[in-house]
Amino acid sequence: MGNDNEIIDNIANKEYEFGFVTDIEMDILPAGLNEDTIRYISEKKKEPEWLLEWRLKGYQAFRKQKLPEWQNFTLPSIDFQAISYYAAPRNKKKYNSLDEVDPELLATFEKLGIPLSEQKALAGVAVDAVFDSISVATTYKEKLKELGIIFCSFGEAVQEHPDLVRKYVGSVVPHSDNIFAALNAAVFSDGSFVYIPKGVRCPMELSTYFRINTENTGQFERTLIIADEGSYVSYLEGCTAPMRDENQLHAAVVELVALGNAEIKYSTVQNWYPGDKDGKGGIYNFVTKRGICKGDNAKISWTQVETGSAITWKYPSVILQGDNSTGEFYSVAVTRNKQIADTGTKMHHIGRNTRSRIISKGISAGQGQNSYRGLVQIGSKADAARNFTQCDSLLIGDRCGAHTFPYIESKNNTATVEHEATTSKIGEDQIFYLNQRGIDSEKAVALIINGYAREVLNQLPMEFAVEAQKLLSITLEGSVG
Amino acid sequence: MLIIKNLHAEVEEKQILKGINLEVKPGEVHAIMGPNGSGKSSLASVLAGKESYHVTEGEVKFHGKDLLEMAPEDRAREGLFLAFQYPIEIPGVSNVNFLKTALSEIRTYRGLPQLDAKEFLKLSREKQKLVEFDAQLVNRSLNEGFSGGEKKRNEIFQLAMLEPSLSILDETDSGLDIDALRIVSQGVNKLRSKDNAFIIITHYQRLLEYIVPDFVHVLYNGRIVRSGTKELALELEEKGYDWLKEEAREKAETI
Q: What is the C-alpha separation between B158 and A206, in angstroms, rounded?
């Protein structure tokens, strides 16, 4: 077994696997943000007037807001004028089939392990691939259409299903929600759109894969998922970016709407470039994710495995409006080197007999800082509401940190709110025990970590659970000697 | 199989092994007895490669190779197994997943083909039956929430699965009731063969009624002060360790 210095060296030497850059011709808007930028994007996407107006309202809201100051880390200053707000692969008109997609692009996704050609695609997974700002391919579209399911890029939904988009966009995360959500409303470029009709159980996992490629661009995608009454959908997003010395901003918005008796399961495996060992470069992952259980007995479940990004700052939340509705949040967040993760959830109990469950597992290594921040809010009408929260922190080494900020606000005395928290370290005894059974320290740590995170990993769809397990092992390779 | 020559070791700068000599051949069962603090468990830890123990002198050959040069996992892969006195709990890692990983690592090291899921299951069932290990425990998290007896039985089950050439049982009998002791001993007896060897570390003669040793050694103050056959264990049971301590002291004085 190595000593602490070796451990640190090992962490430092571990390289980011997806750091390559694709050489492809791009249409890139010059850096800078003003009303013209927004008009350009809107025009480029041939959007209706109401959407342009909504974007402009978002821009006004953005200008009025300041960067938050309540976080427990130093937020680097962000020069919003230095970012380019639109980058798209050139020559892209509209692909009628995958054969028309630039082979270089397809190769990129292939390299990332996301095959887009349908015959080769993972059985039972439909994929929407977003490259910089633009959705380049959506698989299995025809098959889903037979069931009335709409799964397409956001831009396409605006053209083909404007009524649905207009009804729901901004209904969960308003254009003025917070500075990054407002920025997203102003400049969002693309994203995914899903609609599951009444009573339909989506037969396959829907998945979006996000890739930032171009230098100095931000990625601002917007995802909207609507599950009509009695329907079910499971959705997964994954993401990677090239290694670059400067930070890149990712400010996405995800809105989920579950009507009566509907269920949405949303899983994220986040592996943006985390920066190097000194904290240089990496993605600022400032994302607003929120769902609403609009009808009775609705259910929304967030599962996230966060291993990448220089700073991760997000709180996938659920508004429990319908009676008997359920919100869940399962999270594993890993920080190493100088990564920062400040993540958690908000559960707003409004309806009667609403339930929420929060399982958060933080893992800190190197000088990583990991915070759980959560709010459980019980409204005055939320009779018999119940919440269970468990926050566990695992520390590797002695230079990392774990922090927990749980907030509970209850206005109803029939509610039950439980909170449990633990902090532990990986023991040398545990590693030696596994060593003695022929398992080297690296694999031993992977086993222990995966065991620790199992409750969360179990929530992931089968195909991705395996991927996430591997990712966790790779991320923490060499973290303990 | 195992040759220990003049082994000295310390932990936290305290000398705990002061010149151990021992040879173990295939097919043999050696019992190591001795009072508390005599260095029995330390010997097991040094052989398994626990980091906090430092060898200051002497050598250990295992199957002709320098054991002390090897990383703990390589010692295990070479066929050395330690049944822990206090088995460690690893939450969330299923027993079966852990064993699959261990077996796979060992087989890779030895250049053996991997077992497929079916073969592994078959092997696991066979061994469960052999050592009377509860099938439910196999799927639970590794030692998590196991009773003391269940943990010890899990050690024997792991031993059965990994088929080591040399097994060191570190006070496996401590904390076992008479039924568990019988089951554990029967397991070990079934696993004994002409090709493998056991070192059984124990305080009490009781275990040796079930697992009959070929040799008994008494460890005191970091040295083997007496070796004999199973009759020595009976003598110790009758007379205690005091007379040996006395003898060792006298011997030390004359030197």
A: 42
Identify the pLDDT of residue A92: 47
* CB spacing of A1 vs B106 below 8 angstroms: no
Residue A434 CA to residue B91 CA, distance in Å, equals 13
Nearest to A432 among B72, B109, B141 (CB): B72
Mean pLDDT of chain B: 91
Minimum CA–CA partner of A3 in chain B: B51
Q: Which residues contact B32 (CB under 8 A, 6 or more apart)?
A: B40, B43, B199, B200, B201, B202, B216, B217, B218, B219, B224
What is the average pLDDT across B203-230? Answer: 90
**Residue A481 confidence (pLDDT):** 42
For B20, phi and psi rounded to 5 degrees? -90, 135
pLDDT digit string, tens, across residues A179-238: 999 999 999 988 889 999 999 999 888 877 766 655 556 678 899 999 999 999 999 887
Rounded to two decimals, what is the model's pTM?
0.80
pLDDT beyond 60 at B254: yes
Distances in Å between the Cα of A255 and the Cα atoms of A24, A103, A225, B89 are 31, 32, 6, 41
pLDDT more than 90, % of chain A: 42
Rounded (to 5) percent helix, strand, coil in chain B: 45, 30, 30
Q: Cβ(A412)–Cβ(A374) under 8 Å?
A: no
- What pLDDT is attached to residue A7? 36
Predicted confidence at residue B4, as pLDDT, reads: 97
Alpha-carbon distances of B93 from A452, A455, B25, B151, rounded to whole Å: 8, 11, 36, 15
Residue A422 CB partners (closer than 8 Å, separation 6+): A391, A392, A393
DSSP for B98-130, written as a single string: HHHHHHHHHHHHTTPPPPPHHHHHHHHHHHHHH
CA neighbor of A336 nearest in space, from A78, A7, A5, A20:
A7
Which chain A residue has the Cα nearest residue B77?
A438
Going A194 to A197 to A199 to A200, the CA torsion angle's sign is negative
**Backbone φ, ψ for residue B48 (5° rounding):** -80, -15
Distances (CA, A) of A86 to A29, A191, A249, A289, A412: 5, 13, 13, 22, 47
- Tell me, yes or no, if B111 comes closer than 8 A to chain A by beta carbon: no
Best mutation target among A424, A436, A439 (most B Cβ atoms within 10 Å) is: A436
Query: Given a cut of 80, is residue B182 above it in pLDDT?
Result: yes
Sign of CA dihedral B65, B67, B73, B79: positive
pLDDT of residue A96: 52
- Comparing alpha-carbon positions, the chain B residue that sits nearest to A481 is B51
CA dihedral of B210, B216, B218, B222, whole degrees rounded to 10:
-110
Assess B195–A contact: CB distance below 8 Å, yes or no. no
The string of pLDDT tens digits covering residues A308-335 is 888 888 999 999 999 999 999 999 988 8
Strands across the sheet containing B65-66: B14-24, B2-11, B53-62, B65-66
Pairwise CA distance, residues A179 & A67, whole Å: 7
For the four alpha carbons of B86, B90, B91 and B97, in that order, the dihedral sign comes to negative
> Per DSSP, what are the bridge partners of residue A311?
A284, A340
Question: Which has the higher per-residue pLDDT, A292 or A144?
Answer: A292
Per-residue pLDDT reduced to its tens digit, B151-169: 999 999 999 999 999 999 9
